[in-house]
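Model it.
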Amino acid sequence: VAQSANGRFYPLSQLQDKNSCPPNVDPKNRELFLSDLDFMGVFGMTKDQYKNKAAWQKVVLKKKANLF
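Modeled.
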């Protein structure tokens, strides 16, 4: 598990599995616990670009990534 200044990052597969998701991860914002590289691979954009999306767009993206 990678460590960053902002906290810990987890692999996509662990965040997708609600049963093995770490207890410190907010279930409504699991995508934010991906590393920047993994986030880009999953969503095709940076976290800053993602944050500027409308709420409904985030829901669609999270559903496609099985993170909803």
